[in-house]
Amino acid sequence: MNPTLVEVTRGGRIESVHRGAAVVVDTDGRVIFAAGDAESEIYPRSAAKPLQALPLVASGAAEQFGLTDAEIALACGSHAGQPEHVSVAESMLRKAGRDASSLECGVHWPLGEAAARGLAACGGLPTALHNNCSGKHAGFICLACQRRLDPTGYVRPEHPVMREVTAALAAATAATLDDSHLGIDGCSIPTFALPLRALATGFARLGTGHHLSPSLAQASARIRTAIAANPLMLAGTDRFDTRIATTYGEAVLCKCGAEGTAAAAIPELGIGLAIKIDDGAGRAVEVAMASLLLRFLADSHVDREELGQLVNSPLRNWNGLTVGRLRAC
Amino acid sequence: MNPTLVEVTRGGRIESVHRGAAVVVDTDGRVIFAAGDAESEIYPRSAAKPLQALPLVASGAAEQFGLTDAEIALACGSHAGQPEHVSVAESMLRKAGRDASSLECGVHWPLGEAAARGLAACGGLPTALHNNCSGKHAGFICLACQRRLDPTGYVRPEHPVMREVTAALAAATAATLDDSHLGIDGCSIPTFALPLRALATGFARLGTGHHLSPSLAQASARIRTAIAANPLMLAGTDRFDTRIATTYGEAVLCKCGAEGTAAAAIPELGIGLAIKIDDGAGRAVEVAMASLLLRFLADSHVDREELGQLVNSPLRNWNGLTVGRLRAC
C-alpha cells in the first residue's frame, strides 16, 4: 500500500487524498530515498520523452537537419498546442522534407485551454501538429529520414526507428523492455512498463551521462541544454514542467507524463527522481514532485518561493476565494 | 482504508486505481450495502444540488414565477454551459425580475469543451450564466424574490435563503450541518461535510418523499419529474448524469459532484446510493455509480447495455485504438 503523498483540503478538512510511490536514485540505480513501492512496474508515458529523444541527437539527425535547441526541446515535450509549438513542430518536419501528413500521433484539440479556444476563435480545427506529442513524433520522423528509412509505421514497436528509441530507453534505464511489458500510449507509440526505480535511474543518467555510451552521453548534454534554453517547448505557458525549467534551468530537468507520472534529474547531485500517483492524477504528481525537488535541491540553487508555492498552493474558487489547499504530505 | 472501486488498465496491466466508499440505504438510513467507510464525512459538493433545490419548489417560488420543468431541472444541475443552459438560466432570472448581474457564482468558461470552443468561435466571453451552477443560483434568487428578500449575499450561510436551503438539506439527510462542518464550494455557497450514509439517505427520501414534510415531499416529486423530462439540463450532451436520466427517466435520479462525489435514488426500491472516490476523480465515480446502479436496478428497468458500457468502457487513444479499459472492480 503506497502512502498518501498529496492532500486536498477544504474548510479545514481533508477532502481528497492521492497515494503514490516516489523514489530517488543515483546513477547506479541505488536507492537514496523511497516512499512506497519503488520496484512496482509503471508505464512511464510521456515522462520518458527526454529519454526517447536521445537517438534523435545521438544518431546525428539533429545535426544533419540543423535542428535548433527549441526543436530538440519540443521533441522532449508534451506541449499545450500553442501557436509557437505548432510552428516549431512544422519546422522540424520541413527540415526532414516532410509535413504533418507524416505524423502518426493522431489529432486532438490543444491541451492548453486558452490555446484551444484561440484556435476555435480563428475558425481553426486541430491537426496532428496540435497533438501534444507532435514534437516527439517529428523527431522520430527526422530520425527515420536521417537513417534513409521510410517513416511510415514508425509508431510500431518493430519499426527500426522505434527499435532504436526502445534500445536507448533500455540502455538508460537498464530495464527489460520486451513484449510482456508493452502498452500503447495515447499517441500510438509503445510505452513499456518498467520499475519506477528504473525510470529514476534513466533520469539520473540523462542528467549526468554516466553509464551511457559516449554518443548517448553527448546527446543527453545537448538535450539538457536545449530544454533549459527553451522551457516553453517542454509544456506550455504556466504549465508545471515549463515553470520548473524556467526557474531552475540546467539545475533540474523535470518531465511529467499522463496518469500521474513524472521523472526528474538533478545533474549536480547525480540523482534521478521518479513518481507515480496511484490514481493517475496530474495535479498530485506536480505537488509531489515539487516537494521531492525541494527536499533534494542544494540550498544554493533553490528558489524556495517557487517550489514552496507548488508544494502547498491555495485552491481558489470561481470568485477567487481561497477555499482549500493542495499540499504535499 | 477504502477498497479499490475502479481500475484503469493498459496493455493488460493495471495502470491506475481509484479507491473510495460506496453505500446504499433505505429511507430510514439503514445500510443495505456498503463498501468502505460509509460514516466518513465528505463534502457532497454538487451531488447535493437536487436536495438544495427543494425549497425553490416547496416555497411556492417555482409556481409563482411559472418555472418550467426545464428550469427546475437546471436548478438541480451542473451544466456544461451549452447555449440551451445559458438561455434557461437567463429565463429563470427574468421571471424573477432579475438578470445575470444578480448571480454570485463567479464566471468560468463552459465546462463542456465543445461549448467553450463554440463560445470562443463566436468571439464570446463567458458570463456567470455559463457557470455550471448558474441554474442553482438562479433558483436561489427566485426563492429570495418570492420571499421578498434582497438576494444580495444569498451565497452566505447566514442569508435567509441559504438558511432555508441548509434546513432542507438537513431535513432530508438528518445530518448536523453546523459551522464545524462548513466548507465553501466552487460557486461560493456553503458545502457541509456530512456522512456519506447521510447523503444516500437524503436521496432515498428525495426519491420517495418518505420522512419529508408534505411540502418537501411534494417538491421532491416535482423535481424527479422535471429532471426525467429534461435530462440535458442536469449536465449536458454525452455527460454521465444526462445519459443516466435519458436512459432511465424517473426510475433513477443520479447527480455527480466535484471531487469524485455522486448520489442517486431508485424510487421504486426506496433506496438511496452515495459514493465518494478518495482521490476526487470524476472518471472513477461515474464508473462506480454505474456499477452500483447495475447491481440494484430491478431487471425490468435495466437497459443493461447502457450501464454495461459505463461500467467497463474501452480507453481509446488519439488514433481511436483501444489501449486499455476503465472498469469497476
Structural class of chain A, by secondary structure, is: alpha+beta
Most strands sheet of chain A: 8 strands, antiparallel
Mean pLDDT of chain A: 96
The percent range for helix content of chain A is: 40-55%
- Amino- and carboxy-terminal Cα gap of chain A: 16 Å
Query: Which quaternary structure do these chains form?
Result: homodimer
Flag low-confidence runs of chain A: none
Compute the CA-based radius of gyration of chain A.
19 Å
Q: Name the chain pair with the biggest interface and residue counts per chain.
A: A-B, 53 and 53 residues
Number of helices of chain A: 14
Shape of chain A: globular
Residues in β-strands, percent of chain A: 15-25%
Number of E-type strands of chain A: 12
Order of helices and strands of chain A: EEEEHHHHHHHHEEEHHHHEEEHHEE
Note the topology.
2 copies of one chain form a homodimer.
Chain A: E1 4-10, E2 13-26, E3 31-35, E4 41-42, H1 49-52, H2 54-58, H3 61-64, H4 69-75, H5 83-95, H6 113-121, H7 134-146, H8 160-173, E5 182-184, E6 190-192, E7 194-195, H9 196-208, H10 214-229, H11 231-234, H12 240-248, E8 253-257, E9 261-266, E10 271-277, H13 282-296, H14 304-311, E11 312-316, E12 322-328
Antiparallel strand pairs in A: 1-2, 1-12, 2-3, 2-10, 4-7, 5-6, 8-9, 9-10, 11-12
